[in-house]
Amino acid sequence: MTDNWDVIIVGGGNAAFCAALAARERGLSILMLERAPENESGGNSRFTAGAFRIVYNGVDDLRVLMPDLTDAECAISDFGAYTRDQFFDDMFRVTRWRTHGDLCERLVTKSYESALWLQSKGMRFQPIWGRQAYKIDGKFKFWGGLTVESWGGGPGLVDQHNSIAKKRGVELRCNTRALSLIYDGHAVTGVRVKHNNAMHDLRAACVVLACGGFESNPEWRTRYLGPGWNSRKCAAHVSTRATACEWRST
């Protein structure tokens, strides 16, 4: 078992794969650790329907992201637009102005760019015909600003990520539980894991934790979303929703 890597990423959902692909762009060796078996991998991303909330100013932006869209499909669809101001307004409304300013700005302003970046890696998208559109007078009208999903929904998102990452030399190690970070008193130097009932110390120059954050933290949910959110149930293996811009801008 290889135990020295440039980057170890704990988690196997959308955030983890985005970090892996962005780091791989820099020629780094990448190991992803996923506690679940491969057919159940992906954390919360598997249960999100593969939906991506992005800024777009009209159908032309969507056709760049989804080149499979035909003229006939566009003719019977009213995609509208979802502007930056609308995205910001939704973030402020849902969080009751508790959203983190810098992170919110990055999420909104980089949303379309990040989706295009994923598309450039091989990710395919389509309109959320079955969840976010009503047929009115013979035309599908999209609502709520949530217009785009990955092919195959949540499971399709994870499957596409798996395929893309493997083609680019990223190793995904499933059925591998991260137990603790290895700390030498000055810096984190790796991860201790359990795999096939054996313990292993894996070393890395950098460790990225993408194995559950905001969604699985009751205190954070209450702080930023308000009373009552502490009692919400979350998936067992939760992945934070992050964009590749985190890696690309550092």
Number of helices: 9
CATH class (first level) name of the largest domain: Alpha Beta
> Which strand order do you get reading across the main beta sheet?
9-2-1-12-11-10
Radius of gyration based on Cα positions = 19 Å
- How far apart are the first and last residues' alpha carbons, in Å? 30 Å
User: Major sheet, described briefly?
Assistant: 6 strands, mixed
Mean pLDDT figure: 88
Secondary-structure element series:
EHEEHHEHHHEEEEHEEEEHH
Based on DSSP secondary structure assignment, what is the total number of beta strands?
12
At CATH level 3, the topology of the largest domain is: FAD/NAD(P)-binding domain
Helix and strand content put the structural class at alpha/beta
Query: How large is the share of residues in beta strands?
Result: 15-25%
* Name of the CATH architecture of the largest domain: 3-Layer(bba) Sandwich
CATH homology group of the largest domain: FAD/NAD(P)-binding domain
Q: Estimate the global geometry from the Cα principal axes.
A: globular
- Fraction of helical residues: 25-40%
Task: List its traits.
24% strand; six-stranded mixed beta sheet; disordered C terminus; FAD/NAD(P)-binding domain; globular; three-stranded antiparallel beta sheet; 33% helix; 250 residues
Description:
The chain is α/β, with parallel strands linked by helices. It folds into two domains: 1-46 and 152-250, FAD/NAD(P)-binding domain; 51-150, no CATH class. Helices cover 33% and strands 24% of the residues. The chain has nine helices and twelve strands. Strand 6 and strand 7 (139-142) form a beta hairpin. Helix 1 packs parallel to helix 7 and helix 4 runs antiparallel to helix 5.
